[in-house]
TrEMBL record:
This is Threonine/Serine exporter ThrE domain-containing protein. Pfam families: ThrE_2. The lineage of its organism: unclassified sequences, metagenomes, ecological metagenomes. Belongs to the ThrE exporter (TC 2.A.79) family. It is found in: Cell membrane. It is a multi-pass membrane protein.
Length: 153
Protein backbone atom coordinates (compact mmCIF):
# COMPACT_ATOMS: atom_id res chain seq x y z
CA UNK A 1 0.00 0.00 0.00
CA UNK A 2 1.06 3.62 -0.12
CA UNK A 3 2.38 5.82 2.64
CA UNK A 4 -0.37 8.40 2.11
CA UNK A 5 -2.39 9.18 5.24
CA UNK A 6 -5.83 7.64 5.61
CA UNK A 7 -7.62 10.96 5.20
CA UNK A 8 -6.08 11.39 1.74
CA UNK A 9 -7.30 7.92 0.80
CA UNK A 10 -10.74 8.96 2.04
CA UNK A 11 -10.74 12.13 -0.06
CA UNK A 12 -9.62 10.41 -3.27
CA UNK A 13 -12.07 7.54 -2.82
CA UNK A 14 -14.89 9.98 -2.10
CA UNK A 15 -14.07 11.97 -5.25
CA UNK A 16 -13.99 8.84 -7.40
CA UNK A 17 -17.28 7.70 -5.90
CA UNK A 18 -18.88 11.06 -6.68
CA UNK A 19 -17.53 10.77 -10.22
CA UNK A 20 -19.13 7.38 -10.71
CA UNK A 21 -22.36 8.67 -9.18
CA UNK A 22 -22.42 11.43 -11.79
CA UNK A 23 -21.64 8.85 -14.47
CA UNK A 24 -24.64 6.78 -13.29
CA UNK A 25 -26.91 9.87 -13.41
CA UNK A 26 -27.58 9.89 -9.68
CA UNK A 27 -29.60 12.81 -8.32
CA UNK A 28 -27.53 15.79 -7.21
CA UNK A 29 -28.79 15.43 -3.62
CA UNK A 30 -27.21 11.97 -3.40
CA UNK A 31 -23.72 12.87 -4.65
CA UNK A 32 -22.13 14.01 -1.38
CA UNK A 33 -23.62 11.17 0.72
CA UNK A 34 -22.52 8.64 -1.91
CA UNK A 35 -19.03 10.12 -1.87
CA UNK A 36 -18.85 9.87 1.90
CA UNK A 37 -20.04 6.27 1.70
CA UNK A 38 -17.33 5.33 -0.81
CA UNK A 39 -14.70 7.23 1.14
CA UNK A 40 -15.56 5.54 4.42
CA UNK A 41 -15.61 2.12 2.75
CA UNK A 42 -12.19 2.65 1.21
CA UNK A 43 -10.74 4.08 4.43
CA UNK A 44 -11.92 0.99 6.32
CA UNK A 45 -10.49 -1.27 3.63
CA UNK A 46 -7.16 0.59 3.71
CA UNK A 47 -6.94 0.47 7.50
CA UNK A 48 -7.79 -3.24 7.68
CA UNK A 49 -5.45 -4.05 4.81
CA UNK A 50 -2.52 -2.32 6.53
CA UNK A 51 -3.23 -4.03 9.86
CA UNK A 52 -4.21 -7.53 8.75
CA UNK A 53 -2.87 -7.90 5.16
CA UNK A 54 -5.98 -9.97 4.39
CA UNK A 55 -7.64 -8.58 1.26
CA UNK A 56 -10.69 -10.84 1.49
CA UNK A 57 -11.55 -9.88 5.07
CA UNK A 58 -10.79 -6.22 4.40
CA UNK A 59 -13.08 -6.10 1.38
CA UNK A 60 -15.83 -8.00 3.18
CA UNK A 61 -15.88 -5.62 6.16
CA UNK A 62 -15.64 -2.57 3.91
CA UNK A 63 -18.54 -3.83 1.77
CA UNK A 64 -20.56 -4.45 4.94
CA UNK A 65 -20.01 -0.85 6.02
CA UNK A 66 -20.77 0.57 2.57
CA UNK A 67 -23.96 -1.44 2.39
CA UNK A 68 -25.00 -0.44 5.93
CA UNK A 69 -24.37 3.25 5.20
CA UNK A 70 -26.31 2.87 1.94
CA UNK A 71 -29.34 1.37 3.64
CA UNK A 72 -29.33 4.10 6.30
CA UNK A 73 -28.94 6.87 3.72
CA UNK A 74 -31.67 5.36 1.57
CA UNK A 75 -34.11 5.62 4.47
CA UNK A 76 -33.02 9.12 5.51
CA UNK A 77 -32.83 10.68 2.03
CA UNK A 78 -35.74 8.71 0.51
CA UNK A 79 -33.66 7.35 -2.38
CA UNK A 80 -33.06 3.75 -3.44
CA UNK A 81 -30.13 2.13 -1.65
CA UNK A 82 -28.56 1.17 -4.96
CA UNK A 83 -27.73 4.87 -5.57
CA UNK A 84 -25.23 4.57 -2.73
CA UNK A 85 -24.17 0.91 -2.90
CA UNK A 86 -22.94 0.70 -6.49
CA UNK A 87 -20.79 3.86 -6.49
CA UNK A 88 -19.70 3.07 -2.92
CA UNK A 89 -18.20 -0.29 -3.81
CA UNK A 90 -16.46 0.96 -6.97
CA UNK A 91 -13.25 1.84 -5.07
CA UNK A 92 -13.18 -1.69 -3.65
CA UNK A 93 -13.34 -3.49 -7.01
CA UNK A 94 -10.02 -5.29 -7.67
CA UNK A 95 -9.31 -3.81 -11.10
CA UNK A 96 -5.53 -4.20 -10.86
CA UNK A 97 -5.95 -7.86 -9.95
CA UNK A 98 -8.14 -8.43 -13.01
CA UNK A 99 -5.63 -6.65 -15.21
CA UNK A 100 -2.71 -8.67 -13.81
CA UNK A 101 -4.64 -11.92 -14.28
CA UNK A 102 -5.16 -11.13 -17.96
CA UNK A 103 -1.54 -9.99 -18.31
CA UNK A 104 -0.24 -13.25 -16.84
CA UNK A 105 -2.50 -15.21 -19.20
CA UNK A 106 -1.19 -13.32 -22.22
CA UNK A 107 2.40 -13.88 -21.02
CA UNK A 108 1.59 -17.59 -20.58
CA UNK A 109 2.47 -17.44 -16.90
CA UNK A 110 -0.41 -19.71 -15.93
CA UNK A 111 0.60 -20.32 -12.31
CA UNK A 112 0.51 -16.60 -11.50
CA UNK A 113 -2.67 -16.17 -13.57
CA UNK A 114 -4.46 -18.84 -11.55
CA UNK A 115 -3.19 -17.46 -8.25
CA UNK A 116 -4.10 -13.86 -9.04
CA UNK A 117 -7.39 -14.84 -10.66
CA UNK A 118 -8.45 -16.90 -7.65
CA UNK A 119 -7.66 -14.00 -5.34
CA UNK A 120 -9.70 -11.65 -7.54
CA UNK A 121 -12.64 -14.06 -7.48
CA UNK A 122 -12.50 -14.37 -3.70
CA UNK A 123 -12.29 -10.60 -3.27
CA UNK A 124 -15.24 -10.11 -5.63
CA UNK A 125 -17.18 -12.74 -3.74
CA UNK A 126 -16.41 -11.12 -0.41
CA UNK A 127 -17.66 -7.75 -1.70
CA UNK A 128 -20.85 -9.35 -3.01
CA UNK A 129 -21.37 -11.25 0.23
CA UNK A 130 -20.87 -8.12 2.32
CA UNK A 131 -23.54 -6.28 0.35
CA UNK A 132 -25.84 -9.32 0.40
CA UNK A 133 -25.70 -9.74 4.17
CA UNK A 134 -26.72 -6.17 4.98
CA UNK A 135 -29.29 -5.92 2.18
CA UNK A 136 -30.94 -9.18 3.26
CA UNK A 137 -30.94 -8.10 6.88
CA UNK A 138 -32.52 -4.74 6.00
CA UNK A 139 -35.24 -6.41 3.93
CA UNK A 140 -35.95 -8.96 6.66
CA UNK A 141 -36.31 -6.21 9.25
CA UNK A 142 -38.57 -4.29 6.88
CA UNK A 143 -40.78 -7.34 6.34
CA UNK A 144 -41.11 -7.90 10.09
CA UNK A 145 -42.06 -4.25 10.61
CA UNK A 146 -44.75 -4.50 7.93
CA UNK A 147 -46.15 -7.73 9.43
CA UNK A 148 -46.16 -6.22 12.88
CA UNK A 149 -47.99 -3.16 11.60
CA UNK A 150 -50.59 -5.30 9.80
CA UNK A 151 -51.15 -7.51 12.85
CA UNK A 152 -51.71 -4.52 15.12
CA UNK A 153 -54.54 -3.19 12.94
Amino acid sequence: MTDMPVYMHFIYAALSTVGFSVFFNAPVTSLIPAGITGGVGWAIYFYLMTTTSNSILSNFVAALVVSLFSEILARKLKHPAILFVIPGIIPLVPGLGMYNTMLFLVQKNYDMAISTGADVLFVGGSIALGVLVITSLARTISIFKIKKKLNSQ
